[in-house]
């Protein structure tokens, strides 16, 4: 039965085949046969899918090998390989593939340009990126939103924000990712003011920000310390309901308040975040350290590690900076041990720089230099830390040598390096006008001429060389001088005996709406002292407390005692000295004794001489001054007794020296 059914089926198939053969012509048979042949385009499509799969699985070499064996490649093939090489960090190879694609006459697609421009942006290939931009324009892709966004990112990376903004304005459509791209660019450039203006424009265009937008905005406010603007943004975040859903945004707010030093707000927001979602441990540790709350910072530092969170570099840098500010070498060394255990000693230039600075500020310059020598690759930041450490410890000549090393090694220099070198020259015995002018030229050529720190250091250096007119020119070129700038020029006038000019500059500073501080008043008083301006000095001294609420310290009292003593107002000088906190120091009593000798006040001089010897019984200079005082009175026996006492105690004094410049050579 089964065999009869099988035979019947075979007959049916045979009959159907014979009928089809009679109907179909030979030409049609050939066409059907050719359908079985391999279509090159179908083969390319299949191989492209294989290439894509290999790239996604991380087998870039296998994908490239298959690419080399393909008989036919299209724009999709090249797009896959270009984006794949870009994804795995092989930017140069990706651009070579793009060049090969163009040379073979394969026209780019929008995806091609987006990939190539992104690769140029990430790798910093600025010249190549602008060349691709030219090709974008020539092929008519200028109005494409995705390509336009990539071009905006490229020019932001090149720090050409004007060009980027122009391209952004020319886009036919601006969606949220494009706005975020611009926000990120201005944030990375540190243009916080422009960042906020762009945000206002974004709201006017009716584009609602998302969590990422606010993260960029808060980052920009953190960098510029825009506290009020940041608080306004915080209100906007609450109104839009992002506080309940935005984990990254909540942490960004903690970072913002921490950076602005708002300890209370940062702590409140930090405690409101579930522990599992906290990524701002390091920010709060940093703000505690900035406020000197060592125990709170360390407690949080320990809790963070208990929750399995690895401390970030900025927490350790915050602790090291705290050690630098407090000169707590013991705490600094403990943090150094923590750095070594966590493997940050060679992994971060910021940690190495902070360690160099910490040892220098704690006056252990040998350890500071030792840390610097272990740095695997010298950087500008580490060299700056070494320079400021050397300057703090008074190793002046090495500061200048370090600056030369930075230039010779091609590291370049910034405003910190220039300012430190100028300060070192000012403090050096070998400072001269030529050296100051050379560094001034460096500042002009490198664009740091109008930097406040560099300008103030130039003002100080020129005034120490006796060229206060050059200091004045530097000051006058400043676009918006601040309190520090005014204080520097006032100090320059005071150093050169131009008290009247310093007093006038104080008036100009107050008229500008700036408030003088203790240092400013000290410089003005020094100028009055060197110029013999007693009434003006008294007026300035009295206004410190009555007008500005500043309590004078020993330096201000010392300056006034010297001013009154030089003017012969010895009684007033003594009364003021008695009012000084701590009843004055050796320098103040010595100044008053010198005035007594000049003006021949024997009675007061004897009292001052006794007080001075009681105050500094082991200072040879004090004994010598008192001995000279009695010699001037004609009491030679008493004078010799005092010298013999000093000799018996084996007191010595350092020999002084002076240095002047004659015909480009130094003469002692």
From TrEMBL:
GO terms for molecular function: RNA binding. The keyword Repeat applies. PPR repeats lie at residues 74-108, 175-209, 277-311, 482-516. Keywords: Repeat. It comes from the Eukaryota. InterPro entries: PPR_At4g14850-like_plant (IPR046960), PPR_rpt (IPR002885), TPR-like_helical_dom_sf (IPR011990). One of its GO terms (biological process) is RNA modification. This is Pentatricopeptide repeat-containing protein. It comes from Acer negundo (Box elder).
């Amino acid at each position: 039965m089964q065999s009869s059914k099988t035979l019947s089926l075979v007959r049916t198939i045979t009959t159907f085949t014979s009928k089809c053969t009679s109907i179909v012509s030979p030409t049609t048979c050939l066409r059907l046969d050719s359908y079985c042949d391999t279509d090159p385009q179908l083969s390319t499509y299949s191989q492209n899918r294989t290439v894509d799969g290999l790239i996604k699985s991380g087998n870039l070499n296998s994908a490239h090998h298959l690419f080399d064996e393909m008989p036919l490649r299209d724009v999709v093939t090249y797009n896959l390989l270009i984006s794949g090489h870009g994804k795995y960090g092989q930017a140069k190879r990706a651009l070579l593939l793009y060049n090969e694609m163009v040379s073979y006459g394969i026209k780019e697609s929008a995806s091609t340009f987006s990939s190539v421009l992104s690769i140029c942006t990430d790798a910093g290939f600025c010249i190549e990126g602008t060349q691709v931009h030219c090709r974008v324009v020539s092929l008519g892709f200028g109005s494409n939103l995705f390509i336009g966004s990539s071009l905006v990112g490229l020019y932001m990376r090149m720090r050409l924000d004007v060009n980027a903004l122009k391209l952004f304005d020319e886009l036919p459509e601006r969606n949220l990712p494009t706005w975020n791209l611009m926000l990120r660019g201005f944030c990375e450039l540190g243009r916080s003011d422009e960042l906020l203006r762009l945000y206002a424009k974004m709201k006017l265009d009716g584009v609602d920000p998302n969590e990422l937008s606010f993260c960029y905005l808060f980052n920009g406010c953190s960098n510029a310390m825009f506290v009020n603007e940041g608080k306004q943004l915080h209100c906007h975040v609450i109104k839009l309901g992002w506080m309940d859903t935005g984990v990254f945004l909540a942490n960004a707010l903690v970072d913002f308040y921490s950076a602005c030093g708002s300890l209370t707000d940062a702590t409140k927001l930090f405690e409101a975040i579930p522990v599992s979602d906290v990524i701002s441990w390091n920010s709060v540790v940093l703000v505690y350290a900035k406020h000197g709350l060592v125990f709170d910072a360390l407690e949080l530092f320990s809790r963070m590690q208990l929750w399995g969170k690895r401390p970030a570099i900025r927490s350790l840098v915050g602790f090291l900076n705290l050690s630098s500010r407090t000169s707590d070498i013991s705490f600094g060394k403990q943090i150094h041990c923590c750095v070594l255990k966590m493997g940050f000693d060679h992994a971060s230039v910021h940690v190495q720089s902070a360690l160099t600075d910490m040892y220098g500020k704690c006056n252990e310059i040998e350890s500071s230099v030792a840390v610097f020598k272990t740095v695997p690759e010298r950087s500008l930041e580490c060299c700056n830390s070494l320079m400021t450490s050397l300057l703090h410890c008074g190793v002046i000549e090495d500061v200048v040598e370090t600056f030369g090393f930075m230039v010779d090694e091609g590291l370049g220099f910034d405003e910190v390096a220039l300012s430190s070198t100028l300060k070192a020259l000012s403090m050096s015995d070998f400072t001269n006008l030529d050296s100051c002018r050379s560094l001034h030229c460096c500042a002009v050529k490198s664009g740091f001429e109008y930097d406040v720190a560099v300008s103030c250091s130039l003002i100080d250096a020129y005034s120490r060389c006796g060229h206060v007119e050059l200091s004045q020119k530097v000051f006058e070129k400043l676009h918006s001088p601040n309190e520090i700038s005014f204080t520097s020029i006032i100090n320059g006038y005071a150093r050169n005996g131009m008290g009247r000019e310093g007093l006038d500059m104080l008036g100009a500073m107050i008229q500008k709406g700036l408030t003088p501080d203790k240092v400013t008043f000290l410089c003005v008083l020094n100028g009055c002292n060197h110029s013999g301006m007693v009434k003006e000095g008294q007026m300035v001294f009295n206004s410190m407390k009555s007008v500005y609420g500043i309590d004078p310290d020993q330096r201000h009292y010392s300056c006034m005692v010297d001013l009154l003593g030089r003017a012969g107002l010895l009684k007033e000088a003594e009364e003021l000295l008695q009012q000084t906190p701590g009843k004055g120091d050796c320098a103040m009593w010595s100044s008053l004794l010198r005035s007594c000798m000049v003006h021949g006040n024997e009675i007061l001089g004897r009292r001052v001489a006794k007080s001075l010897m009681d105050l500094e019984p082991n200072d040879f200079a004090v004994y010598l001054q008192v001995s000279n005082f009695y010699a001037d009175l004609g009491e030679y026996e008493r004078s010799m007794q005092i010298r013999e006492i000093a000799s018996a105690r084996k007191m010595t004094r350092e020999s002084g020296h002076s240095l002047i410049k004659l015909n480009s050579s130094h003469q002692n």
